[in-house]
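Data card: per-record layout.
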Amino acid sequence: MPQTTERRRNVAPWWGLLFAIGAIVCNLVLFLVSLSWQGMLPWLSLLCAILALIFLVVGLLRAFAQAHIYRGRVLSVVLTVVSVLPIGLTAFAFVTARRLPNSVAVPQVGQRVPDFTLSDSSGKQVSLDQLLAPASTGSQAPAPKAVLLIFYRGYW
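The structure for this 156-residue chain is written out next.
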């Protein structure tokens, strides 16, 4: 009499997809939330991506090498293909972030900026001292107390 084996679900690809989504969520949290332990998030994201790859490989091996025990061969392949995109994006973000230059000389909030001159929207040269000076000698308008400067930290 042949021995019957109970077929089991292959949950490893589902865990792989879950960890791949977790890796992307770690990257989103890195950009959206300011935390005291924010420096650990890229490493946590990379750890999630590695765990996702491990679970996906285990799931594929189960689906194809032990097909008589584990069912869901097609679903395992589909979940692996879907999970590869977030894992690739996580790896790309991790490697690319390491290539960005350090921001050692970035101005701090409230720091006094040295005087500079730039062109305004009409092409006229305007300095920071001109913006902070009173409007005119005869007017009662007070001088502006601050100027908002926005620094875009780009690397292109």
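Known properties of this structure: The first strand starts at residue 8 and ends at 9. The CA atoms of residues 89 and 155 lie 19 Å apart.

See the next section for split statistics.
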